[in-house]
Amino acid sequence: MTLDPFGHSITDTTQMPKNWGERTGNRLHLKTKKIAIYNLLLFKRNSVYDSYKVQETERLIRSQKYVTAVRITHKLAGVASDSVDVTIRVLDSWSTIPRFSISSNQVSVGFKEKDFLDQVSNWNIVLQIVFMMAQTEMTLLTRFQISRILI
């Protein structure tokens, strides 16, 4: 389960966003897709439970820049069962970074989305206004960068 970055807790399943700011931030946030987390798992469904692989998976997920916290828990599937159910709770991090700069002849406003297209790319959008003696020039700059390709 992937949780939005504001108002949720890894340990308390009842904690919810309390105010307008938290709810708005969560609506604007691009949520991490399940496949991004599944690609990091070192264990598979219906395989033998290995606590070392579970701990390493938790460490690996936690090391991702789009994750604030992670908790992996397990419980017996039934009273007389030899199976366990594994639950993964991931708390997303806020991934949109506003940008602003001003100088004597230029104003730039924009944002950088670190987790565009499920954590494989970065997207920068900047509106740049340059003031010159007799004219004003407005430019929209955008940069899209793929940092890794998942296979």
Summarize the structure.
The chain is of the alpha+beta class and 151 residues long. Helix content is 20%, strand content 40%.
Structure description:
The structure is a single chain. The chain folds into 2 domains: 91 residues, Ubiquitin-like (UB roll); 51 residues, N-terminal domain of TfIIb. The protein has 4 helices and 7 strands. The two termini are 22 Å apart. It is an alpha+beta fold. The longest helix is centred in the middle third of the chain and has 12 residues. The strands form 2 sheets. A 4-stranded antiparallel β-sheet has the order 4-5-6-7. A 3-stranded mixed β-sheet has the order 1-3-2, with helices on one face. The radius of gyration is 21 Å and the shape is elongated.
> Low-confidence parts lasting 5 or more residues at pLDDT below 50?
none
Number of domains: 2
- Spatial strand order of the main sheet: 4-5-6-7
- Please tell me what the overall shape is: elongated
* Oligomeric state as shown: single chain
What is the CATH topology of the largest domain?
Ubiquitin-like (UB roll)
Total of DSSP H or I helical runs spanning 4+ residues: 4
CATH architecture of the largest domain: Roll
Measured distance between first and last alpha carbons: 22 Å
**Helix content range of the residues, please?**
10-25%
Overview features:
40% strand; N-terminal domain of TfIIb; four-stranded antiparallel sheet; three-stranded mixed sheet; 151 residues; 7 strands; 20% helix; 4 helices
